[in-house]
Amino acid sequence: MAKVEKKEVAAATPPWKPKPRPIVRLGIVLISHSLLVSVVCCTAGIVALFLLPMLAKNTYISENALMPGSASSMLSNHDISEAERLAKDLTSLNSGAADAGIERRRVLAKYLSDLGVEVGYHKFQSHQNQFHPLHFFSSPDSGLSRENGSCSSYGINVVGIIRAPQADGKEAIVLVTPFNFRKNSSSEALSISIGYAVFSLLSRVSWLAKDIIWLVADSQYGEYASVASWLRDYHIPVFSASSSHNADSCFEGNNINLSREESPGRTEISSGFRRAGTMAAALVLKVTDVKGQLEDTLSVYAEASNGQMPNLDLINVVNYLAVHRQGLRVKVEKFLSVLTWEWIWVLGDTLNFIGKVAGSLNPEWKFGISTPDYVEGTATLASSLYRQALGIPTGPHGAFRDFQVDAITLEISPKVVYTNQGRRNEFILRSARLIEGVVRSVNNLLEKFHQSFFLYLLTSPAKFVSVGVYMIGFALLVAPLPLVAASLYVDANKPEPSSQDPKQKLQINFKPWKWLSAAKQVFTVHAWGVFVSLLPYFISQIPNSTPAAHSIIWFSLSTFGLLVLYLITKSPSKPQKGKWENLKSLTISAVFIGLLLMSVVNFATAQIGALVLVPACLLAQPLKLDIRTASLKTFLRIATNVFISFVAFPPAGFFILKGVNEGFGNMDVGEFWTWLESLWAWNSATYIYIGMVHLPCWVLCLQILLHSC
Amino acid sequence: MTIQIRKGKRATEPQCLGSQRSLNSEDLLFPNQTGDSKAAVYFQLSNGRFRPPPAHRLIAHHIVDTIAPIFFRVSRTMWLPLRLTLLLLFLLLSPRALLRSGSAAVVSGEEEEFHEELLLKPLPDRKVLAHFHFHSIAPPSKSNGRHHHLFPKAISQLVQKFRVKEMELSFTQGRWNYERWGGFDPISSNNAKPPGVELWAVFDVPEDQVDAYWKNLTNSLSGLFCASINFLESSTMYSAPKWSFRITPGRLRYGTLPREAVCTENLTPWLKLLPCRDKAGLAALLDRPSIYKGFYHSQRLYLTSNASVPAETVSGISLEQTLTVVLQPNSPSSSSIHSGESNFQPSWSLSSIFGRKISGKCVLAQSSIVYLQLEKSIFSEQKDNMDNGPNSLASEGFAGGSGFEMSLDPDIVIEEENQSQHKGSSVLYGFWVEKYNESQPFDLGLKWKYPVFWSSRQAPLHASRFLMGSGNERGAIAILFKSANSADSSSGSRHVSDGCELQVDVFQVVPWYIKVYYHSLQIFVDDEAKPIGDFVHKIQVSPSKDKTSPGMMEMLLKLPCDVRSAALTLEFDKGFLHIDEYPPDANQGYDIPSAVISFPSFHSVMHLLSNDSIRKSPLLSRFQEKNRVQSYTEVLLVPLTTPDFSMPYNVITITCTVFALFFGSLLNVLRRRVGEEERYLKAGKKKGWLRVLLSRLLAKLRGKPMEEPDQPSSESAPLIGKKLVLKVILVAVLAVAWQFYST
């Protein structure tokens, strides 16, 4: 678009012109008023972002086949007492004993095989996520660091599979319960109870159309790692590698023989990997102890890597069943600190007032929302945006999304730690009925989840903003960028007043190439950005150093690189007119392209990035110019520029955000490094964005500010 | 007197009629002929004058035969041959003859036979297998013409019309659990079928006509069994395996429908083929709710004919109808699984499993036997436990002190010949059903006294198949073989030595939209990648053609006998379908039919001690046939990219907008003459105050100084005319009015 406009502008300069088309004229009008347009658009973009909680719609179950809650629960007290017996058997084992973990697995497997289901052990080797610069966006890799590992880092998952009696076994539903076999934890035992109660019921029912897999994930090396390695072995098994041998030899060496079960009548517990069909959905079930709650609550975590979300219908079903059937309070994560911000409350009041006024004018215009709702919605929305922007999965469900399986984590926290068996049973009953209902709904599903939204932000468990709405704010925010770029370009390449001079004609021919040096500069800075984002891979190889040291090395190397580049590419020619405009125009174009690309990969990152970068780029103007014409306006501009470019510097921004949330008390330089490390360890595209879009553009803005014109 | 027979609707589509047409089953044979659907056959029998329409002479003949006894009196003066025929027929079909015809010897060995048998077998995982076996035989004969006493006419017409030499059709619901229910015995090799419908047929026609015959056959079967077998008509759905599926000389076609749902509407026509239907005999046990509640349900129809007979004689056909169900007897103690009783096999009886009892045999059946099959390992264990002494198995079964108790005494005990001391040999108890009647129904019960354990005999390798990879772009199919008896490798009929080879046939059909790269075949034996040539003895691949034919792979593997595991992987790309090729529920994914794994060097055969009663029993003689061990893998579900079907409206609007823009600008370019317009504008220069104001506003908007009143509106004039403004205002006013008065 911008290109077309530029061309048209160039074509518009000859003295006699054919009348341009209306759309071109519109473009010219917009470009010539780019200042007004950009102010209006940016304001509108930011206002639209704050209006999102008001524009949120109530969720609804879009797929009719789900039919949540239409069948009455079949879960009985018998299942629960069996499950409690299992939990007791598990917790009564001496946790101090060395082989308590093995014994627990055996107990669990015995219970499962008594149900008549297929039981298997899955051995895996937990390995740290390793940064590899070329593995961004690649599919989960099987060959990656599978070999070499000490036997100590092996974990064993227990997997039970119910084969649906009358079905063809093409699809499966996965239940995951993280459980640390080494430790005794009452909440984890409670989650095992719930899982087992549901599973034992499902092993008896006749309505199953999909196989059920219950994965008791060994969480001693983290919940995510065990689930992810199981999924990897499920989808990308390695036939040739020595990994399985490794694991086997480890266990034989430790005199652990899991697969021998003495009684011959039982179904054999195999150490071979067992599979069911294509996964339809997955539920991760956790129980946590949270103190000081008024009622039993259910927290839903849905964000997977790079801001991917499961189908909204899955959340809807859980929400519907939890609220309307089991009477649990459903929560999604929110930023609690937002609730304390005074200005959000004022904003909420204002919007409420406007809504009321509008409602009094025409009762059809009901967009009013009560102030507490608005503030809650904003807090949830902010958290939703932040979690998606971070690109780090919020739980073990993230591993499923990498294989295109819709999954969420359900974290149930009881009101108090139940000591009374009756109350405890009642809690298990409610939670298990919730899981049963969700499984039954998904079981009803003939097709995979496709009916509802995949791109959305949650403002409450029952409210969402769909992509069609939240894109508007972003589009308004980035819309001025091409206009401003074009207008700057036009300004920079305006024919000199003296161009009537025939001697100057030669120069006019070369005019289009004026932007080339600026382009070179922009390109070098972006190349430097690539270099900076690859540096951590090498720095992390340095043994025995703290994160603080790492970040200092990184910082100094980057600065050094920038200096070298600057010295190499420094153009000897004297500054000429329009140079900084060209630079700014190209910077803005680069930002525009970067933001658009990022909005496709991870919208939330692009939205947050746009909030910072767009004002920074638009406002950037050489400080010298402003200082020369000292007035209130220029002074204000200087102040804003300095402030924004400080905030836009990634480490500074990180520490400010952290300080706002947690207080400025204890800051460590290393924290930024750890944060970035977590980003690249999870293959988050946000890391790429920071390294290759944000940082170069920030540097370019600085160059514009410090331009010597 | 007029008899009018009107032909029914053509049976090209699956239609489920409550009753099968007996008289006009002829129409099943002409599904693809048009025009005869409306044909009504009229002929009159009045005053001895018989005028059959020439085109339907045969049908008329048939009908006259059928109704002859009734009209015998009327047709007194008819032409002589017919009268003689009718007389003969009348004598033959006299009530006495009718009653006797089914049971024992009537005239000669060339007699149609019908046998019904039921095999019951407790399974290791507390379930019970019930295997119904109905066998009808029509010998080749000239005497009967096209008519049969017992044999279903629809089938014999099918065989003759389509020159079917051998055919098997199975409807299956659920999966056969090879690990627990066995993979070596004749039942699992012959009767464990893939979910959905499987059909294969061998034709006795020249190669170039086979496809046409196959298509007609699928349509006929579709009508006959109320199933969508006619989908197998399309050439993308069937294939022609050469050697891996079944070593049958002739023209074989093979097709499966994995997604076909099986229900009573398929069972009813199947039962209609039996002479007693489900009114008497063993089939009376088939209580629909209980047999469809089970874990596995497979109804099968297998026929062979000696088709290479002269055209005028009717070929002999043997029709085998089997129904295999795996049911869970609901024992009262099932609720207390975790108590000590959990080791007990549940006790059951026929009435507790099926909810019905057998009240006598089907009178038309020559034999009606119920077998109870028990693994011999139970007895050996019993001996160990009880030290029962050298009792014979026969007495052990029902004498006291053994691990189980039968409610009835068996009439015959058949023991499997114990050649090699491997587990899996079994004992059969036979019960003659004819001894029982309405007042004393047959209700076999089995009661366990001690917990017993045994395991079914496994195929040499356990095969499983799964998908690898994720995403909508590509993936891989993996077939994994695991040695079933890794612990005791000495078992099995093969001797283990160096150089011993285990042959495995793999037959795999893949639909065309799964584009398999056969060159990417990889073999891993015992967790090591191996060159393909070392193990693949023979391979034949016919790659898929888009929208024409499916891909087919036949492979003969020779693995070392002591192999622990072997894996085959094949990579594929997922194709795109045209919008109208998507099946209903496209978002579920697409099925890859089961692969067939067979072991040519292993035969599932029961060596029974030869006995006269065994020779008579078709079920047991079937068990004694040498068939290779065969198993089916899982059906796979491949998610493919699907368009958003729910948004055709959006697509239409977007396309229309794009088209409108395109054509609008194209027209503009083509027919506008700018120079003309400007001249015209300059000519009509005078304008009202409104236009001046507007042009000023526009100029302001454009950020340019107001030009001299001579020139300015040359640009804006065509854009905003007075009329246009008026129109816009009018519309706005209307809209505001609408907004206010509609609410």
From TrEMBL, chain A:
The chain crosses the membrane at residues 23-52, 467-490, 521-539, 551-568, 588-614, 635-657, 686-706. One of its GO terms (biological process) is attachment of GPI anchor to protein. InterPro entries: Gaa1 (IPR007246). GO terms for cellular component: GPI-anchor transamidase complex. Keywords: Membrane, Transmembrane, Transmembrane helix. This is Glycosylphosphatidylinositol anchor attachment 1 protein.
From TrEMBL, chain B:
It comes from the Eukaryota. InterPro entries: PIG-T. GO terms for biological process: attachment of GPI anchor to protein. Keywords: Membrane, Transmembrane, Transmembrane helix. The chain crosses the membrane at residues 649-670, 724-741. Pfam families: Gpi16. GO terms for cellular component: GPI-anchor transamidase complex. This is GPI transamidase component PIG-T.
